[in-house]
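quick one if you have a minute, typing this from the bus. below you get a single protein, a line of residues and a line of whole numbers that encode the local backbone shape. could you go over both lines and see whether the tokens make sense for that sequence. anything you notice is useful, everything is just below.
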Amino acid sequence: MRRSSKTQKMRGFSLIEIMAVLAIMAVLMGFLVPMVFNRVNAARVEATETEVERIFKAIVGDPSKGNFGYLGDMGRLPANLTELFVRGTQTAFHTADGVVEHVGGVGTGWRGPYLTGLSQEDLLKDAWGNNYDYSNTGPNAGQIRSPGPDKDLNITSDNIVFPADLPVGTTGTLVVHVLVNDIPQPTGLTVEVFTTDSTGEQVKRAGTDGTQTTAAQGSTPFRFTVPHGVSVIKVTHLSAGVTVTRTVNVGVAANTQVERRIIMKTTATVAM
């Protein structure tokens, strides 16, 4: 009895045909799976590189725009990355201590959160779900580190870190030139520098980084080591019973040197 044409059309694939299809699929998968994996991994690397830089910028800000980040506001590196999100017991941002205004009107203290746009949990983990490694002390202080795809910081070949160069600086240099009646660094001159301390309060710097006079300095410019952030220079000149004072705010980024020329006028006699 002959099979109908309909029955012939419904005939299934032979074992050889199925094996051929599976072989072709295996070859394709051998090419496609590594390709897809590599693309996914590359995307994760790029996302993590962007994020560690973003976290570091939250710490140091963008000094070119007058933003000195957490370090400038608090006078120190955060003890942990959570401090960028949660104030807790940290000093709140303020511009006065009680009824006494800060010198130069500069605000200090925590004014975060310093990272926005994602949840705290998302921003503290890399693209593989690893917690970022961070410390404010030791040889890697201030550096944000991800163990990368292998999830092992001890295998450094694929670690993702920012910044790459260590140590992370927290201070800069401020050089002050003062002219009184066009005379540079005359006698009777006192220069004081006010900055943020490690508790988020404004203080006058200790020792010669806080107060210098022409009696000790001579005719050369004044030089101060100051923390990353906004420093306030207070210049006082006293001669023949006449006192003139000027206050200048200066932003100084870590690992940089900033020079300021301050010009003052007085009715008193000015001498070198």
